[in-house]
User: Fold this.
Amino acid sequence: MYNLKHVLVLFSMMLFISTPPSGRTGELKNYQCTKCGTLMQSASKPSSLGCRAGGSHHWNELGAVGNENYQCTKCKLHVESHDKPSSIGCAEGGSHYWNDLGRIGTDTYQCQKCGLTIRSASKPSSIGCNTGSHQWNKLN
Ligand SMILES: [Zn+2]
Ligand SMILES: [Zn+2]
Ligand SMILES: [Zn+2]
Assistant:
């Protein structure tokens, strides 16, 4: 017979084993190609092969992936970021102008005007749509 203490020890061991051996080195970062605009999450700089704009991708690191939704009000790029992303490399020229749309959550919202779809904990900020304000619909 297992007593409660044994069960708890077993349970915490299972938790420990199922936790991926991430460490700081495996931390995902947001990368965007300044030429073709492709955004991807990667632990290291992605391959430069096959840019749609011709030649090699030119990856710009925007910072660590995290639990906050940010959108640039100029180029409309949306990233899930730990902190305010790097301002370098806005497709509209100059610096990105990041707006915090709110914390990432389990609900999915889509703007019926610009089509942006994000996962959010609550109704996202309405700032930064193509024309005027985002009009969010909760999809689930
Ligand atoms: Zn590219
Ligand atoms: Zn931008
Ligand atoms: Zn919108």
User: Anything to note?
Assistant: Helices lie at 4-18. The chain has one domain: 28-44+53-138. Residues 28-44+53-138 form one domain. The chain has one helix and eight strands.
